[in-house]
């Protein structure tokens, strides 16, 4: 017998008794037939207990248990600290609030207590990583990260383009980043400005960047922090980021090609996610054949264009005559650039 079923049975009995008692009280108050009214209320109680008991007993406990089990110990500890601080704030506010006359003095203390506990617990849980970093940097409390134990703290500065792109989340989850992802406050401010733009596309891009930022903050499997450091003498956000990268000797994570060039010219290290994507794309060598669907015309007459699963463009000489068909093509040349990889191919005779 499952726990859900057992809770339904117990709830059905309990709410049937409660319903029957309410039915008797209602019958006396409104001079109704006591037995019939009690029976109807008991049936309603049975239905209520049968349907809703697991939702108010077993399932909340199960969700709480899963949350506690899956939550990292650091987040669990900071959540408990936040709850204790919220309790202290609520208790300190309880006495002055209770001095209000009437029902206000009775209602305000518990409401403020609940709100303060919820607010402080949420703040400490969401900002758990930054709390631990602060305690570690200021007081030496907490476990040191592997790169700090080795005496090296590698920071990777995020620009707006890489946050809007979003692939950094998946890359960081693989564990290949090898350092702390850092978002300067002025980059976040720029994202907010883009998210408030009157242009629909810019607004959507800004909101996506803020969504990715929140995901990085909440993910417990990645090292991430927000820093307040600024370069007040430099007005442009990209120039600020380059200057900050030089100052901190930290590489910039980006997908912006102009930023890539400017940063390199100023002596900053750049990690371009597009270059990483090119490096892990399927490698085809001249003479190799594969199936490809021709989707559109190329720039030159007679050319057809198709795409591999990873988005690599394949230009097929003489492929225009096979539009909307899947054919076998043979690689003739590859061109790799910072902006992407292009494969040139020709149809393979007899394999269409």
What do you see in this structure?
With 352 residues, the protein is α/β, with parallel strands linked by helices. Helix content is 57%, strand content 15%. It is built from 14 helices and 11 strands. The chain has helices at residues 3-30, 34-56, 58-70, 73-98, 102-126, 128-139, 146-149, 160-165, 167-173, 185-195, 200-218, 237-248, 257-265, 273-279; strands at 155-158, 180-184, 224-227, 252-254, 270-272, 289-293, 296-297, 304-307, 313-316, 326-337, 340-347. The strands form 2 sheets. The protein has a 6-stranded mixed beta sheet. Helix 4 (73-98) runs antiparallel to helix 5 and helix 4 crosses helix 6 (128-139). It is extended, with a radius of gyration of 31 Å.
């Amino acid at each position: 017998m499952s726990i859900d079923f057992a809770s339904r049975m117990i709830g059905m009995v309990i709410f049937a008794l409660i319903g029957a008692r309410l039915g008797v009280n209602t019958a006396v108050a409104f001079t109704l037939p006591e037995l019939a009214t009690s029976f109807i209320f008991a049936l309603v109680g049975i239905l209520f207990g049968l349907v809703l008991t697991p939702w108010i007993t077993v399932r909340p406990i199960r969700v709480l248990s899963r949350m506690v089990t899956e939550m990292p110990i650091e987040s669990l500890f900071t959540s408990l600290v936040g709850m204790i601080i919220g309790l202290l704030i609520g208790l300190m506010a309880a006495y002055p609030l209770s001095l209000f006359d009437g029902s206000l003095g009775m209602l305000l203390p518990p409401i403020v207590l609940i709100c303060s506990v919820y607010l402080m617990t949420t703040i400490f849980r969401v900002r758990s990583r930054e709390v631990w970093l602060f305690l570690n940097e200021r007081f030496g409390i907490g476990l040191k990260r592997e790169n700090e134990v080795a005496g090296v703290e590698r920071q990777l500065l995020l620009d707006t383009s890489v946050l809007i792109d979003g692939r950094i989340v998946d890359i960081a989850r693989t564990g290949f980043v090898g350092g702390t992802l850092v978002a300067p406050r002025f980059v976040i401010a720029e994202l907010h400005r883009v998210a408030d733009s009157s242009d629909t596309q810019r607004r959507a891009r800004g909101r996506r960047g803020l969504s990715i930022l929140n995901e990085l903050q909440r993910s417990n499997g990645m090292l991430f922090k927000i820093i307040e450091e600024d370069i007040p003498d430099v007005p442009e956000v990209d120039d600020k980021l380059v200057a900050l990268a030089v100052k901190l000797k930290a590489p910039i994570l980006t997908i912006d090609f102009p930023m890539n060039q400017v940063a390199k010219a100023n002596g900053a290290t750049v990690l371009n996610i597009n270059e990483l994507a090119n490096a892990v794309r399927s490698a085809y060598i001249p003479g190799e054949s594969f199936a490809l669907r021709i989707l559109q015309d190329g720039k030159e007459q007679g050319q057809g264009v198709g795409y591999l699963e990873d988005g690599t463009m394949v230009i097929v000489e003489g492929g225009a005559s096979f539009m909307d068909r899947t054919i076998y093509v043979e690689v003739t040349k590859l061109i790799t650039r910072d902006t992407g990889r292009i494969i040139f191919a020709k149809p393979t005779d007899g394999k269409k």
